[in-house]
Amino acid sequence: MSFDWTDYLQFAEALALNPALPGPEEAALRSAVSRAYYAAYCCARDLAAGRRELTPARLSSDHTLIIDHFRLDSDPARRQIGTYLGRLRNNRNRADYDGTLRGAPAELALSSVQLARDILTGISSL
């Protein structure tokens, strides 16, 4: 059975809303950002690959490939998916690599969950 990537968004939301439950809190919030990104990224990747619009190589360069595939499309809805996915990737990179986050980690987690939700809504309307 294939994994449902939207389960990552559900998990991210649970972490963002109650980060103390699994704790440590900042680690849970950073994980929420990362899981929200991967929910959106994998759904966008699978949509594009499933429609034979592109063939991901399963390399780190695929992230830029997928984002640009949508961001540079002539359809405004697809461009918005690409733009939001780019923002979400920036959030994920901050959460995964920056030792000190600018702003509150909880705000970053909640805004990332919302971005991912908006991306998945956009994908489902295509």
List segments where confidence is low: pLDDT < 50 over at least 5 consecutive residues: none
Structural class: mainly alpha
Number of strands: 0
Please tally the helical runs, counting DSSP H or I stretches of 4 or more residues: 5
Order of helices and strands: HHHHH
Helical percent range? over 70%
What does this structure look like?
- The protein is mostly helical and 126 residues long.
- It has a single domain (6-124), classed as Four Helix Bundle (Hemerythrin (Met), subunit A).
- Helices cover 72% and strands 0% of the residues.
- The chain contains 5 helices and no strands.
- The chain has helices at 6-17, 25-50, 61-71, 76-97, 105-124.
- The chain is globular and about 40 Å long.
- It starts with 5 loop residues before the first helix and ends with a helix.
- The model has no long low-confidence stretch (mean pLDDT 96).
What's the helix and strand layout?
Elements: H1 6-17, H2 25-50, H3 61-71, H4 76-97, H5 105-124
Key descriptive features of the protein:
mainly alpha; 126 residues; Four Helix Bundle (Hemerythrin (Met), subunit A); 5 helices; globular
In short:
This protein has 126 residues and is mostly helical.
